[in-house]
Write a structure and sequence with these properties.
Radius of gyration: 31 Å
CATH class of the largest domain: Alpha Beta
Order of helices and strands: HEEHEHEHHHHHEEEEEEEHEEEEEEEEH
CATH superfamily of the largest domain: DD-peptidase/beta-lactamase superfamily
Strand order of the largest sheet: 16-18-19-14-13-17
Oligomer: single chain
Keywords: Carboxypeptidase, Cell shape, Cell wall biogenesis/degradation, Hydrolase, Membrane, Peptidoglycan synthesis, Protease, Signal, Transmembrane, Transmembrane helix
CATH architecture of the largest domain: 3-Layer(aba) Sandwich
InterPro entries: Beta-lactam/transpept-like, Peniciliin-bd_prot_C_sf, Peptidase_S11, Peptidase_S11_C, Peptidase_S11_C_sf, Peptidase_S11_N
Strand content: 25-35%
Shape: elongated
Number of domains: 2
Largest sheet: 6 strands, mixed
Family: Belongs to the peptidase S11 family.
Function: Removes C-terminal D-alanyl residues from sugar-peptide cell wall precursors.
CATH topology of the largest domain: Beta-lactamase
Number of strands: 19
Number of helices: 10
Catalytic activity: Preferential cleavage: (Ac)2-L-Lys-D-Ala-|-D-Ala. Also transpeptidation of peptidyl-alanyl moieties that are N-acyl substituents of D-alanine
Length: 415
């Protein structure tokens, strides 16, 4: 009897542990990072938050902002001549020499793959003329992107007590940078060669982001996993003694792209934490295209126009993040038209908006614009008669007048 009771007790314990395990699959991962965030790259929605607004030292993840400003302000083929001050930049570098000539593109690869601090300084000076002026540009652009708890002092992230950001701010900056095709190309390049210059032999660069290629494995929340991450799309690592190990990572699967940021963790932790966050996002969330750019929402009447109505379309796409378990039916849209329209109307002119709701919550708005130009109509357009019909009526009237004249002429001759 005791044996039977013992067997039943063991079965009960195993059953309970299985239930607990299944119930915990939706739980957020345990991280070694001091702060972290997981964000939907399309929507900017936060899917996981660990002290995401706490000010932290970003180390070389700073270079994401530097790259964004460079790509927005410089031609990649432009040649940069290195000055003495830049050549003396410390820590990680590609040892640029005074008077050396390199292109903006080569410096970007050096900065994002090798994390070269001297390359970052060279680019900053080429954009703004000096590092302080470039830092001003960095801070202004950060605020435009919604990064409100950030203050940049350097273009490379070398430690300064007044140089800080947050996990959330870094994710917002990265989200904008990822919209640039050249940035995406650079951060996913595994190897790059800077050809011989007037001052140096060729330089070989290797991407340190192991999520893109590593065959090694590591422990992720109690499970051994490959470091190479399926669907990885970037982004940038960083390290200083004060900042600890940092990594901004991204991956795309099944129509949803996620950005993770982990700050002040360990050498293995930066990859383990990133994998845990990305897994959590892909396992528990999906991204739905609520509105697609160019999608038609019908036609709207135009007063005094050459045509009676005009088609209106969405000005951009909008995506909504929802639980992977939820039905798409919880996403609803509502059309709001900006009153009565009167010609003339330009193509692409805003005529209203689409409000996007997740359940009862308004989550986004998308402008709707005219799909074609509408010119001012003729004299009859004021009563709703478009020019095409007006012209046809005019022709019909002329024909009637002509026929009437002929009949009248014949009648007079007969008399």
């Amino acid at each position: 009897m005791k044996k039977i009771f013992l067997v039943l007790l063991i079965i009960l314990i195993i059953s309970n542990s299985m239930v607990i395990s299944l119930a915990e699959t939706d739980k957020a991962p345990a991280l070694s990072a001091e702060t972290a965030v997981l964000m939907n790259a399309s929507t900017g929605e936060v899917l996981y938050n660990k002290h995401m607004n706490q000010k932290m030292y970003p180390a070389s993840t700073t270079k994401i902002m530097t790259a964004l400003l460079v790509l927005e302000n410089l031609d990649l083929s432009k040649t940069v001549t290195i000055d003495r001050e830049t050549a003396l930049t410390g820590e990680c570098q590609i040892y640029l020499s005074e008077g050396e000539k390199v292109t903006v593109e080569q410096l970007l690869y050096a900065m994002l793959l090798k994390s070269a601090n001297d390359a970052a300084v060279a680019l900053a000076k080429e954009v703004a003329g000096s590092v302080p002026k470039f830092a001003d540009m960095m801070n202004a652009r950060a605020k435009e992107l919604g990064a409100k708890n950030t203050n940049f002092v350097t273009p490379n992230g070398l430690h300064d007590d007044n140089h800080y950001t947050t996990a959330y701010d870094l994710a917002m900056i990265t989200r904008e940078a990822m919209k640039n095709k050249e940035f995406r190309k650079i951060i996913t390049t595994l190897r790059y060669t800077i050809p011989e210059t007037n001052k140096s032999n060729i330089r070989e660069l290797k991407n340190p982001n192991k999520l893109l290629y590593s065959k090694s494995k590591l422990l992720v929340n109690g499970t051994i996993k490959s470091i190479k991450y399926d669907g990885a799309t970037g982004v940038k690592n960083g390290y200083t003694n004060e900042a600890g190990r940092c990594l901004v990572a991204s991956a795309k699967r099944g129509g949803i792209e996620l950005i993770s940021v982990v700050l002040n963790t360990t050498a293995d932790g930066k990859f383990a934490d990133s994998i845990a966050l990305l897994d959590y996002g892909f396992d528990n969330y999906k991204s739905i295209a609520a509105v697609k750019k160019g999608e038609s929402f019908g036609k709207i009447k135009v007063s005094k126009g050459a045509v009676r109505n005009v088609e209106f379309v969405a000005d951009k796409s909008s995506y909504v993040t929802t639980s992977a378990k939820n039905s798409d039916s919880e996403i609803n849209t509502k059309l709001v038209v900006d009153g009565r329209l009167q010609a003339p109307l330009a193509k692409g002119q805003k005529v209203g908006r689409i409000e996007i709701y997740k359940g009862d919550k308004l989550v986004d708005k998308v402008d709707v614009v005219t799909a074609a130009q509408v010119d001012k109509g003729g004299i009859l357009s004021g009563i709703g008669v478009p020019d095409k019909i007006s012209h046809a009526l005019g022709i019909a009237v002329l024909i009637l007048i002509f026929l009437s004249a002929i009949l009248l002429f014949r009648h007079k001759r007969a008399v």
